Amino acid sequence: MKNKRFAFALAAFIMLNLIACNGDKGILPSSTGKEGELLLIVDEKYWHHSIGDTLRQYLLQDYPALPQSEPLFRLYKIFPKNFTRSFKTNKNILIIHIDPTRPINDPLLEIGYDNWAKDQLAIKLTCHNPDEFFDAFRQKRQRIIELFRQKDLERYQKKFKQTSSVELSKHVREKMNISLPIPDGFYVSREDSNFVYLSHDAMKKIGGLQHQITRGIMIYSFPYTDPSTFTTRFVNHLRDSLTQRYVEGSAENSYMIIEQLYSPDSASTAIQNKYALETRGLWRMENYFMGGPFINYITLDEPNNRIIMLDGFIFAPRFDKRDYIIQMEALLKMMSPS
Predict the structure, then answer these.
(1) Which helix (H) or strand (E) holds 187?
(2) Closest to 309 (Cα-Cα) out of 156, 189, 176, 175
(3) Among the three residues 128, 161, 194, which one is the final residue of a domain in this structure?
(4) Are 233 and 330 a contacting pair, CB within 8 Å?
(5) Which of 239, 247, 240 lies closest to 214, judged by CA?
(6) Cβ(18)–Cβ(77) below 8 Å
(7) What is the pLDDT, as a whole number, of residue 25?
(8) pTM of the predicted structure, to 2 decimals
(9) Percent of the chain, pLDDT > 90?
(10) Of the residues 111, 136, 161, which one is the last residue of a structural domain?
């Protein structure tokens, strides 16, 4: 009997070791840190070099269409000798490695998911020498940035799926004929036959006082008749017409409009693999002192020959707004026609 128990224990021990050696993702620790953070691993001598200047220039550039300067990433830098186990669980890791043994003119970009932790993205760029780094980073930096941004969006989307309001998501689906997981805390502020305006109000403490944070989502649909729909000019006109009608301020005759001192920017993107026009800009309240960033999408629902407009805006006057607008982007990009 003892021999059987010993044999069973030995087999279990061997199996656990085999699983560990195979790097089974199920036993990895959860990733640490927050979305929008980036852990940068670079040798000390290169950090105090033009390599460091280049990395700071692009990784700390301003996030677009915010009312104040906020960086693309919250950057945390450590040197390779300090890249110990406690740091290897970070959500986003970028490693810059200069290796003279690497073949010249053959930079290597390695992209790893869940290397040291669950839901992690680690990217390593290896170059033969500093001069080669500049060429390689110039060619690959946009892809590197987009990979980290996309991974953050996916993480937020996973959270929204877990925290959505079943009742409100169902209401939006029945009302607008779309699927969109609406997070808990939102409520219907205004609606019409082909329009829904959802709002979320919260208070956050800073400096010993509570301050308001408001998030708004507008969903609108209309028949597709003209290709000029997919232009910044059309989006600006459409958005202003909707907000003047449905999004009112606290003062008499106050309503939301686009702040024209900062011209909105548009770019092509995709929602659920379908073409969409993305527009980012700033809004303000006419006849009232309020403002903030917005992000807008229009896309074609071909089976129903209609345009779907999705718009999210933020009011958080005492706080940074980058994370809120990234969350809004992640949420709106989850939409699919029902």
Answers:
(1) strand 187-192
(2) 176
(3) 161
(4) no
(5) 247
(6) no
(7) 54
(8) 0.90
(9) 86
(10) 161
